[in-house]
Amino acid sequence: MATMLANKYVVVHSKNIWDADLLGAQMKMNSHLHAIILAGGSGTRFWPLSRELYPKQLLRILGDQTLIHQTLKRTLSCVPISRVFVVTNRSQADIVTLQLREWKRDIQKNIIVEPEGRNTAPAIAMAAMKLVVRDPAAVMLIVPADHVIKGTRKFAEAVNLGTKLAGDGHLVTLGVNPTAPETGYGYIKPNMRNQLEAQGALKGYRVRRFIEKPDVAKARAMLRSGGYFWNSGIFLWKASTILDELALYQPKLLRDIKKICRLQNSSAGLNDNVMKMYGRLPSMPIDTAVMEQTSKAAVVPVSFVWSDIGSWSSVGDIASKTKAGNVVNGNVVDLGSENSVLFGNHRLVATIGLKDMVLVDTPDATLVCPKSRAQDVKEVVSILKKRNARERLEHQTVFRPWGSYTTLDSGGGYKVKRLTVHPGAKLSLQRHRERQEHWVVVRGKAKVTRGEQCLELTVGQSLDIPKEMNHRIENPCSEILEIIEVQQGPYLGEDDIVRLQDMYGREVCS
Amino acid sequence: MATMLANKYVVVHSKNIWDADLLGAQMKMNSHLHAIILAGGSGTRFWPLSRELYPKQLLRILGDQTLIHQTLKRTLSCVPISRVFVVTNRSQADIVTLQLREWKRDIQKNIIVEPEGRNTAPAIAMAAMKLVVRDPAAVMLIVPADHVIKGTRKFAEAVNLGTKLAGDGHLVTLGVNPTAPETGYGYIKPNMRNQLEAQGALKGYRVRRFIEKPDVAKARAMLRSGGYFWNSGIFLWKASTILDELALYQPKLLRDIKKICRLQNSSAGLNDNVMKMYGRLPSMPIDTAVMEQTSKAAVVPVSFVWSDIGSWSSVGDIASKTKAGNVVNGNVVDLGSENSVLFGNHRLVATIGLKDMVLVDTPDATLVCPKSRAQDVKEVVSILKKRNARERLEHQTVFRPWGSYTTLDSGGGYKVKRLTVHPGAKLSLQRHRERQEHWVVVRGKAKVTRGEQCLELTVGQSLDIPKEMNHRIENPCSEILEIIEVQQGPYLGEDDIVRLQDMYGREVCS
């Protein structure tokens, strides 16, 4: 079972997730194929809609489903759920699990929590180490959780060919036909005379050369000359092949990963050493760690529509638009804007005559910039980081394994929140040193522990929790429970909490 | 005493305010001079910072004081408080009084509440009618509450010369040196060969011609040729003169106003007839009603800096700016914007590379447009009006004579508010048909009536008010009182209120 951890002691998951039922593998699917969905992400480029604790893959930027949900759905066209693993990091694990569980309850077993994100190479190395033990012939399909792909069938076909190539010992990347002289992507030059394999119109080639993030002149030249492809970041290889190549090109990284795995497998698995060692790993993408150095690289040029939607301006390229070329979302009143991304929500946003602009509105922060400056939101986030501004980190609504809370108001000595508790969910048994709490149920029914008492509160009923008194909220019903909480005291930080029991594996005091 | 009315029965004030103490007139001031501050306003052009119930004059657009506060201060350099009258309309009376009272408690006696705004001509006619009875030689200084003037001394000098001319039977307007080919103002051509009076460098002339809102070509031509002035909307005349001219040019309006005054003076003063008659008056500015037709018009060209800040773009002309030419207010993180108005508040706003743009952010609505389209916010407001959107009418925080309330949250069957009650203030004794209320005191101390009980609540204490139970909140202390109120019920509109007693003259049930 995966642990959803927001506290101090967190582990890279070890044995248990690999016990997942492999019998579910469907007949047509390659029985050695496993998928690794990479769901880290810093939440920077889509600020203020994304936050450090709520990155891009969790957003509904396009359509009703979040990007990670779309990714999982797409992946399941190639790999059964029992062999799909989601790698995320500690600070995002709760919300990733929450989102995926709503749709596929089984996925909860297959979520791998890194102590912290160290880019793709360490995560992939770790996954390969574990996979190869279970299935020496295991093939890994690596998919980032926050890409947009239109054409699931074409995706599955490419994966199919890629799997074949991977089985033959190649390190395969899916190559995307470039449509613009992008400088943010890596480019791949296949060796067209060295075709490895073909399935229908799809072909696989050896890679002649990787060109990492070129300048605009070079990008234009490659676009003009043709025969170059964008590196999509979607990879296929055997676990054993990537381990061999890591041994060759990143021997130290591999040694460290092996140590971490040994530590985890020993009885001292859940300890600070794992945390520390993981934190010392280099933050390194698999592209530079292996792909640009290996002689085994192959590419399958694909024909599906792909975008890594790397900035707000790229939303304009991929989302559906009004006649005037605007992407409009939420409560927006617009007069005559053109080619703009107008991304609101419940709050009212009025725009007049914007051209090629980006406007993103959230309950607690708004961004406005020309499309051409959309990447510079990174600088805004780094300013906010320096100021230690809450708005870089989390939303006004913060997700927890039991539901969420929204801060409605705060002033000298008090804070007002709305708690939303999922059916069947239960907050931890806890107490606070500095604050008293007052609850009013506004929806559903609450089962409440208050010291030694056990009470039921229905809509309109209220209760005081004095400081230092143990308490717990539970939603025993099938309807959502909503509570207005008024906190009062000299200190109202989230860290004033003594947890005594928790059903989500969060740290408790002994 | 002025009545602050937000309810059905409202009157144009009659006798009592004119009993104001005239003895306070200072020696150097002309003892016949009275000031009428026109404080209506539709709240359209500065949306979303202004709202229909919170118009421009109430905003702190420039500096720490609101525009009406600045106007009152400036007016007091010419006229003693006892002879300063503020005309506002019913829906804005509470907040206008609240604001002015904080600074000058005496002003409360001199607030004239119109049932509804009908532009300047009816308000001025009514004021003149009443003034001439008290002082047949009364001179009226008419000042809009929402203009910006830099140079109070120069203003006072101009008023001084204007008063002299008014005393001689002229209808005087202060003329502003035009600095741009504005198409939104009236222009005045003085007869330079017909100088009426001079005081130092200041001169008064007969008006040769009024040019109402010219097209841009005409405006440019006037700017080039020189010798034209903008009509500032600041007027001086004897009450008797303006009444004579109204009799000549607007006889029907004057007859109706006389009827309304008679009705008010009769015992049936406070009735529906006054409301109805006022509502039927034409909405007419004094400029077109009289000034453009009279042969008695005179102009005093002035040299102080003046702006009617008619749109968000004009804020850029008058407010202090950063080196890059931005007007910045509130919690704004900006990267490289230029010549823009970035007007935020507590919420975080991030702007990157804006040029000649306007961004106005409020807790519940945001506006973004190029400066050149700033006037079109009127269209946005009219769209909101059609949709019956709350955001055109009022802010998330709504002001009441006793303080204010802020809506923090609302959902199915509940609403959460923060009530802020001024020291010594008292909400009405009231009850609700459809909702129960739950209060938690988070600041100060409350004296509460609950049915037959009288209770005191301190910080952290809470109370239920069932529906149909009479209740009242009072702040007996010298500190602000803040209460979190959770309302619950099938209907939560503001109009579900039965008032039984009110200290602010609001309608109560018998």
Task: Spell out the key features of this protein.
12 helices; Spore Coat Polysaccharide Biosynthesis Protein SpsA, Chain A; six-stranded antiparallel beta sheet; homodimer; Jelly Rolls; about 500 residues; alpha+beta
Detailed description of the structure:
The structure is a homodimer of 510-residue chains. Chain A is an alpha+beta fold and 510 residues long. Chain A folds into three domains: 16-307, Spore Coat Polysaccharide Biosynthesis Protein SpsA, Chain A (Alpha-Beta Complex), CATH 3.90.550; 312-381, no CATH class; 402-501, Jelly Rolls, CATH 2.60.120.10. Helices cover 24% and strands 32% of the residues of chain A. Chain A is built from twelve helices and 28 strands. Chain A has helices at 67-75, 93-103, 120-134, 152-167, 216-225, 239-249, 251-265, 272-280, 286-291, 312-318, 377-386, 390-393; strands at residues 33-38, 84-89, 111-114, 139-144, 148-150, 171-176, 187-199, 202-211, 229-238, 297-302, 305-307, 327-329, 332-335, 341-343, 348-352, 357-361, 365-370, 397-400, 403-411, 414-421, 429-431, 436-443, 445-450, 453-458, 462-465, 471-474, 481-488, 498-501. In chain A, the strands form seven sheets. The first copy, chain A, has a six-stranded antiparallel sheet. A five-stranded mixed barrel of chain A has the order 6-9-7-8-10. Chain A has a four-stranded mixed sheet with strand order 12-14-16-17, with helices on one face. In chain A, strand 1, helix 1 and strand 2 (84-89) form a beta-alpha-beta unit. Chain A is globular, with a radius of gyration of 24 Å. The model of chain A is unreliable at 1-27 (pLDDT under 50). Chains A and B meet through strand 15, strand 16, strand 17, helix 11 and strand 19 of A and strand 15, strand 16, strand 17, helix 11 and strand 19 of B. Strand 15 of chain A pairs parallel with strand 17 of chain B.
